[in-house]
Amino acid sequence: MTPNRQASPAARSRQAQAVDRIPWTTGSPRRRRPGYAPRPWVADLLLGLAGLGLGITLALVVSAESRGSLVAPGGLLLAGGRLAGFVGTYLILVMVVLIARLPWLERAVGQDRLVAWHRRLGPWALWLITAHVVLITLGYARLSHTGFLRQLWLFITTYPDLLAAMVGFGLLIMAGVTSIRIARRRMQYETWWVVHLYFYLALALAFAHQVVTGIAFLGHPLARAFWIVVWAATAGMVLLFRVLLPVLRNLRHQLRVVAVREEAPGVYSLTCTGRHLSDLAVSGGQFFQWRFLARGLWWHAHPYSLSALPQAPYLRVTVKGLGDQSRAVARLRPGTRVFVEGPYGAFTHHVRATERVVLIGAGVGITPLRALLEDLPGGVAVTVVIRASTAEEIAHRAEVAELVATRGGRFYEVLGPRHAVQLDVRTLRGMVPDLAQSDVYVCGPEGFNDLVIASCMRAGVPGDRIHVEVFSFS
Ligand SMILES: Cc1cc2nc3c(=O)[nH]c(=O)nc-3n(C[C@H](O)[C@H](O)[C@H](O)COP(=O)(O)OP(=O)(O)OC[C@H]3O[C@@H](n4cnc5c(N)ncnc54)[C@H](O)[C@@H]3O)c2cc1C
After folding, report:
1. Pairing relation of β-strands 255-264 and 337-344?
2. Could you list the residue range(s) of the whole structural domain that residue 157 is in?
3. Where are the alpha helices (DSSP H) in 5-39?
């Protein structure tokens, strides 16, 4: 069934009835393909390669220096500047790879951690590039007995590719400054995202300057080849995994909205139909980036976790209206085309170490837990704990209850005002006596997650058995 905007009211009503009959809790496993298990060794291998690349970069830069160049006026400043420039650029390329959506890395590490690593490297890379600009300018100024600003002006006006590199440097600083937490909190996510795109432009602008004028390349064809391969591989990964693969996948699946339904106050489920969805390998707990091809929405993608495993030809997410895009979900019309990227995330059953699982959620955090519950292997003992002010606020409550009952698990609803009812150690142990021997999956608002993590730790759950999905990357 592929809805379109021109569908008659009768056809729409038939579609809506069909959506009501989707067997979300009892559907056939043949209607979906299990998600791929993560392979942690791939992450180790990539980490090793990144370290090796850094070692080669350092060796190339250091071996390009000579005693004569170091003792010349400004020689040490220039050598330091070159080292800072190459290492800084290398770190930036690593940052790009971290967020290039490499599927094996995404599954093994999780996007939240990859983004966190990307952020951690950012300041180092920016400081090194800034040191490069300052040291090289000082070094040349010393060499030609002139001032810093005069030398900077000479660079921009007379050296090939340096103007572009300077513009690139400015863009890099802009992307870096807007990513500082305080600045980012004051900006709309979309504004930050657009500014951050300049990061790629900055890299492109810096490339020619580095390969053409980088002294390490002079007389070193192998060094130049190595550096070009590093750049080309990085650009190739971005194009392949962030552009080509999503485009091909969407051409294959052709998702369209088929129904939007209120599941709890302000929380809407969005069901899409698509082609070949039984081929889409996805694990319960994973998320996609969703882009709705409607006016004002098409240009930004937002992450939403599946709230059920796919039941071909259907796919479902459940969204709480918080800001512009998430609130607009409630108004999406059947037939609206949808572009997704993913699946991403390591919040899946693959990461558990035991056969006892406790799923603890609050608010719209129930969505990945609901899909994860469905995806847990048969032999796993399950306890679900949902925190809410009232039972009506729990989205997909009946589905969770049914799934838990089918597998003989335990389902607790902890209801009441936030200040009066808390998931402290005593409450958790009361519901889950074997908590310390279990894997715990937590998803809810940030404060809630922190509290539950602290309670679980105090109850003796080892840190590596507490798996958390945070609904923001900030
Ligand atoms: C891995 C993950 C899974 C998620 N799953 C769900 C889900 O199943 N259901 C649900 O209702 N919500 C989910 N969210 C949260 C949801 O993505 C945000 O509520 C939504 O993007 C808000 O966008 P907005 O334009 O409506 O609001 P805005 O006002 O733009 O943003 C509100 C908050 O969401 C953050 N945010 C906005 N856009 C993004 C983005 N593209 N990436 C990361 N953070 C962003 C902002 O930093 C801000 O803190 C998930 C978030 C993440 C990171």
Report:
1. antiparallel
2. 40-247
3. 9-20
Two tokens at 38? Answer: 């993560």
46 and 193 co-located in one domain: yes
| Closest atom of ligand 1 relative to the 289 alpha carbon | 41
* Whole-angstrom distance, CA of residue 319 vs CA of residue 329: 7
Distance of CA 470 to the CA centre of its chain: 11
User: Looking at the structure, do residues 172 and 241 belong to the same domain, yes or no?
Assistant: yes
Among 328, 332, 311, smallest CA distance to 320 is for: 328
Q: Indicate if ligand 1 lies below 6 Å from the C-beta of 303.
A: yes
DSSP state of 464: G
Total of domains in the chain: 3
Quick one: how far is CA 7 from the chain centroid? 36
Rounded to the nearest whole angstrom, what is the distance from the C-alpha of residue 387 to the centroid of ligand 1? Answer: 20
CATH number of the domain within which 289 lies:
2.40.30.10
On whether the pTM is more than 0.85, the answer is yes
pLDDT of 413:
95
Q: Are residues 117 and 163 in the same domain?
A: yes
Does the beta carbon of 304 lie inside 6 Å of ligand 1? yes
List residues bridging with 272 in a β-sheet: 257, 315
Mean pLDDT by 10 residues, the chain (474 residues): 56 75 80 88 92 93 87 93 93 94 92 92 94 95 94 87 87 85 77 81 81 65 85 94 96 95 95 94 96 91 95 94 90 95 95 97 96 94 96 95 95 89 90 95 94 96 96 72
Q: CA torsion, points 176, 181, 183, 189, in degrees to nearest 10?
A: 90
Which residue type, as a one-letter code, is found at position 34? P
- Rounded Cα distance between 436 and 455, Å, is 11
Distance in angstroms (rounded) separating the CA atoms of residues 173 and 202: 9
Cis geometry, peptide bond prior to residue 313 (ω within 30 degrees of 0): yes
pLDDT score at 24: 85
Predicted confidence at residue 200, as pLDDT, reads: 84
pLDDT of residue 419: 79
**Domain's final residue, options 320, 344, 368:** 344
* pLDDT at site 1: 46
Q: Is the CB of 317 under 6 A from ligand 1?
A: yes
Same domain, 87 and 216: yes
Check: CB of residue 119 under 8 Å from CB of residue 57.
Answer: no
36: its two tokens: 């791929």
State the pLDDT at residue 2: 45
Of 279, 309, 344, which residue constitutes the final position of a domain? 344
- Both 124 and 188 in one domain: the answer is yes
Measured from the CA of 320, which atom of ligand 1 is nearest? 11
> What token pair was written down for 206?
């810096």
